[in-house]
Amino acid sequence: MNSRLVKTAIAVMGASMLLVFGLVAWFLFSAWWSSPPPILGFGDGPEQPIAFPHTVHVSDAGIDCQFCHRTVSTDEAATIPAVAQCLFCHDFNKIDGSLSESGTAQVELAKLIADLGETQEPINWARVYRLPDHVQFVHAPHIQQGISCSTCHGDIASMQVVKQVRNLKMRDCVDCHKANNAPTDCSTCHY
Questions:
Q1: What letter does residue 112 receive in the DSSP assignment?
Q2: Fewer CB atoms inside 10 Å of the end CB: C or N, the chain?
């Protein structure tokens, strides 16, 4: 009787280990080769507290990404500009949205002044891109090597609403690193 119990326990343990191995293999396979589900950023971009038109700022006004995202070439993150920086450009005696073809420009600029300009509270922007917590991505070396923002972020200048356009999966990063003779050891990107 005991030997039968031991055999059953071994069979259950074997099946459990096989299940765990299968789940781990599936996770690794999907992390490397598959596309993320729409909930992870694809589809329409998230609704923002202020409808910020990159089309107007980048395409029409010709403002470079680094003018607003000032730390992208020196730090890890591409920081979002402070309200004061928005207000610096939008000297409301000159740029008030009245010349815009959009009926919402003045409304959105009014939000900036009324809701945020007086208190200097940061704008609570909805995140568009997210990487797993165990991944470390530093913008600075990529920008310093001359990699364009549009390589990963797409043609922001033509987007009414910013949305994620690339998978940004491990395979994309490793392939890019290999193509550009950049380090591919695990500690480069993983904590």
A1: I
A2: N
